[in-house]
Known about the structure:
PH-domain like; globular; alpha+beta
Amino acid sequence: MGKFVIKKTPSGAFNFSLYASNCEKIAVSSQVYTTKSACKKGMESIAKNAAKCIAEDRVEDQTLKKVEAKTCPKFEVYVDKAGLYRYRLIASNGESIAMSEEGYKSKSGVMNGLKSVSINAVDAEIVDETLEK
Length: 133
């Protein structure tokens, strides 16, 4: 079972990271949220949309010469400036809601990473590190 961790940014906004059951960080929020409630809605959107993207083959491989466009929600796979594979999850409204924090050396690695997001986001534990201790 995965785990979402909510943190506060230095500016007072909120963001999250998603960890797999092996404690490896597999995704981070693509944006910062002004409220914790909005941050939690973003996490819910990842759980819903990531699984749908895998089930309905909505992975847009932008590394191909001829890209087959997919409708949102979708995962986009691309190569970054360092030549590493990455993914981002695009919600139904076209907004990027999550992305890989680190690049992958192979396409099979990035594909395993986004599949891990779809599995670990569902019913993930929520750890709120913004609460006073």
